[in-house]
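Hi all, long-time lurker, first post. I run a small reading group and we've been trying to get comfortable going from sequence to structure in the token notation. Rather than ask abstract questions, I figured I'd post a concrete chain and ask someone more experienced to write out its structure so we can walk through it together at our next meeting. Sequence below, copied exactly:
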Amino acid sequence: MNTYKRIDGDYTIQSINSTDVITIDSDRVLVTGNLQVSGNVTYIDTEQLQVTDPFVELNKSNTSSYAANSGILSHVTTSSYAGIRYNTTTGVWELTSSTTDGSDGTWSEIGTAVAGSVAGSNTHIQFNNAGSFGGEAAFTYEYNINQVGLDGSIALADQSSAPASIANTTVVYGNTAGSGGTGVYFVDGSTSDELVSKSKAIVFGIIF
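-- Answer (accepted) --
Happy to help. Here is the structure in token form:
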């Protein structure tokens, strides 16, 4: 039997003792208006949580002792966590692999120690490896000297036309080999030409 209760004014259900529990036992509870939950702790014990909003707002009250560094913690074991937080003091996102709560533990800026260990080393360049982050010791970037290192080869696909010039930059690209015999070209300001191979340079030297 359906029951419908309509009231005029506030409707309050209040327990007397601090240990009293109010239980709603139902397969489904539908709230068609705004729901406000006040208290120190809110437990959600479900197998799946669906949130329509594209953003979840954290740290709204911003009053706790470590509220400036808010984020998300995930259980690794019963006593350890992995987390991500935003550090408002340094203005960077940070990761941690073990902490008891957001106020302690060792946190590292994303892109340095923690992110680098995912790729294999702080100097490794990360790339898309079949849908996951990849890193290779032969492909590195030394940020302190602005140097890219590659222990391998570079494949330059033929371009249909020369790329546009970029101020104060030499652009290297590949195309069909011309009189230089390499198929490796460059554009530097108004200058555009092909790099010359050793054999072609010898021929040119004999001719000219």
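A couple of things your group might point at:
The chain has two helices and eleven strands.
The CA atoms of residues 116 and 122 lie 4 Å apart.
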